[in-house]
Amino acid sequence: MTHHDVIIIGAGFAGLYQLHRLRGLGFDVRVVEAGGDVGGTWYWNRYPGARCDIESIEYSYSFDPDLEQEWDWTERYASQSEILAYARHVAERYDLRRDVVLNTRVEALDWDDEANRWTVTTDDGATSTARFVVAATGCLSMPSKPEFPGRDEFRGEQYWTSSWPHEGVDLSGKRVAVIGTGSSGLQTITAIGPDVASMVVFQRTPSYAIPARNGPVGERLREVRGHYPEFRELSRMAKTGFQCGEEETGWFVETDRDTADRELERRWLEGGLCYTQTFQDVLRDAEANEAASEYVRARIRQKVDDPVTAAKLTPTSYPVGAKRMCVDTGYFETFNRDNVSLVDINEEPIRRITERGIVAGDTEYEVDVIVFATGFDAMTGALNAIDIRSGGTTLREKWATGPRTYLGLMSAGFPNLFTITGPQSPSVLSNMMTSIEYHVDWIANALQHLRDHDLERIEPDPAAEDNWVTTTNDVADLTLMPRAASWYMGANIPGKQRVFMPFVGGVGTYKQYCDGIAIAHYHGFELT
Ligand code: FAD
């Protein structure tokens, strides 16, 4: 059995940077990763068209100015392969691999209250111990795989976007079914449409998608490189951890209708996720949101030739931004192709999978390949998959009615266990790189503080945690966000408690609050 100061679970962007930071502080650290290489999300999700929807100049590490200057992004929105190459470059550049154990899954964590340390059990049967554990397990790393009756009988090929074969899949000339129209489904559908013989898309909920306006990053990268420190500081203080010109953004309720329409058009033409920040009140005020939602709906109706298909693709049942927004490059136009059709499973529910294809309503759709783009058990899935035990209870039991954390960083009763981008932090509502770096630095500073003061243990005070959970819920209720049955709410997982999980109060606000907690001698935490 080996002992380490810190064991980190996961070698995505969070785990890699946490290793680098803690190693730099002289801690003995080991990373355990289930996958066959570093990169996390970008290692697993290799489906056709996989791409970031935050701009590459924002979706990158800021911790080393040399790294910022030397890495060349090629496009405004980086592809999966380029982001994975970046993660690998980082692993090499900082010599991280020597402390990363690959192809190994952490199955259990057991807290020893006497010795103040965790016992970590992995799927190869080995155990190790660590004073601290950092769960860098990812918010979107536990695929949701709904059971479809008859799936085993299907004679064709089946793939999940979340674990796409590394050698790639040749879909050309094949009849393909895609189930799911969230971000991954939408990117896959757009990418494979021109290659496949035919494609039938099964949709439960239509997505709002804003054009990416992707292209070479070119001049913009050179310009930002000239002032990266200031640029990053603005991103850290921005609401979403990336810049949308918030300082110039007005309120819909104070704007006349012509000006409002021009603003919506400007944002639409700029492209990308800043669309919901056209006005300060888009995610707070029903009228403002309806204007922003209707603008997108009108664009969808313009893009799709067949009015019946257009109506099915147009989201009407929830406010724009309340489910994860998509960024697209020709998604809606894909449905103008003769070889592509759409099935609304609210009208024609999927009854079963047969050896030949999918039965929805009264029709059997015969296909050669089924692609499942069915999303993730978001935010809590990867954590709850580990048997985490402390003081006679498990984290899974504690979180049965929804996650409970202090600042999204720790959960009371589970000392010395940190979660990067955990529930009740901005996480999935932000540029994850900004949020990851913030949490990693906060945790590194906390561990250094403990060591400097000869302390061994940190855990949240239950009262502080209760307050934070209440605050998170109250802030969410001030917005329109809980009005959609989204994965932010756990609504895509049968039986999962419906609670709005991320902190919606903004990255900059959150950072200031957590900085203040640390300065106030880790107020709300017990340090012993
Ligand atoms: P991950 O990258 O998920 O890495 C976690 C790692 O932990 C995984 O490799 C996993 O194998 C490992 N792990 C989990 N449990 C265990 C265990 N028990 N034992 C061992 N290892 C374990 N974010 C954005 O900000 N912008 C985007 O445009 C964007 N696009 C995305 C597109 C897709 C398709 C997906 C799935 C996510 C996207 N995200 C995006 C979110 C993305 O997850 C984060 O940006 C970021 O990559 C998360 O890094 P991470 O290290 O926290 O987690």
From TrEMBL:
Keywords: FAD, Flavoprotein, Monooxygenase, NADP, Oxidoreductase. GO terms for molecular function: oxidoreductase activity. InterPro entries: FAD-binding_Monooxygenases, FAD/NAD-bd_sf. SUPFAM superfamilies: FAD/NAD(P)-binding domain (SSF51905). The keyword Translocase does not apply. It is an enzyme of class 1 (oxidoreductase). Gene3D superfamilies: FAD/NAD(P)-binding domain. Its cofactor is FAD. Its EC number is 1.14.13.-. Belongs to the FAD-binding monooxygenase family. This is NAD(P)/FAD-dependent oxidoreductase.
